Here is the input.
Amino acid sequence: MTFLFNRELDYQFLDAKFQDDLYLAREVIGSWCETLDMELNILESALEQERYAAFLRVSQRLTSGMQLVGLIDEIAWIQRLRSHFAFNGVNEAFKKNASLLSERLYELNSLFIIEQQRIESHLEQKLRHS
Here is the structure.
């Protein structure tokens, strides 16, 4: 009974990172979900209040966790936003991309929560069958 990571995530990265250690995957993904859940509220608030420097600080804070779960594209997205902000300030393109990043992080949070639940269920089944 092999566990397969969700194809909507970077399943190849996750499979290579955790191999057969689903206990580690459960801990890392669970920790990531808790962190992201808290930070999403701050990100949304910063966007609503047009506090873009704060939005970027919180986004940057998330990158180490993103590395652990294979969100390489989202890290690059944050870096592009930071560069745009540094060189061009805030304009409509920046606002749109910041909002899209926030939406993507909400979507990813949901996917990772589901993945954590799938791992839990798989581990429970594995225990019952052993």
Remarks:
- DSSP finds five helices and no strands in the chain.
- The radius of gyration is 17 Å.
